[in-house]
Amino acid sequence: MSAMNGRRAAALVAVAAAAASAVAGVWGGQGPSPDQSPATLALGDSVFHGKVGGALCYVCHGPAAKGVPGLGPDLTDKEWLNADGTVESIAKVVETGVPKPKKLPAPMPPKGGGQLNAAQVKAAAAYVYSLSHPAK
Ligand code: HEC
Description:
Elements lengths: L1 H29 L7 H11 L8 H5 L25 H10 L21 H15 L4
Helix pairs in contact: 2-5, 4-5
Bound molecules: heme C.
């Protein structure tokens, strides 16, 4: 009797593990959903426009992030040169800058030339992401 209960328990564990990995598979495929909370986007907006952190995103990318010829690309379109459109890839560009631009003549400095902390980098990335991924 106790042996049978043990086998049943083992079967249940196996089913639960399979279900968990199926769920992880679905989520893993889409990546973690980015933080698009109003507070994060508000901080990102402030960073982008140089109100906190001292970054100059708006100078090179334009106040509406539509790009400035010769300085920075449009960040509101679907074309990504150094990122893949995910919030993680955008955060990476913000962190490291673009030492060798694909199209423009001059590099983007790390953290947009500012002294951004980790939360500000993340918020700026969330803000940039929101420009090409409007809330539904
Ligand atoms: C000195 C000008 C300059 C500043 C300041 C600047 N950028 Fe950039 N940014 C660029 C250039 C140049 C590129 C690369 C364009 C290329 O590859 O041709 C770029 C690329 C990017 C990309 C990737 C776009 C793509 O299509 O791959 C993102 C995202 C981005 N910048 C966000 C920011 C944010 C956010 C800030 C502020 C924290 C910032 N930038 C500050 C000039 C700038």
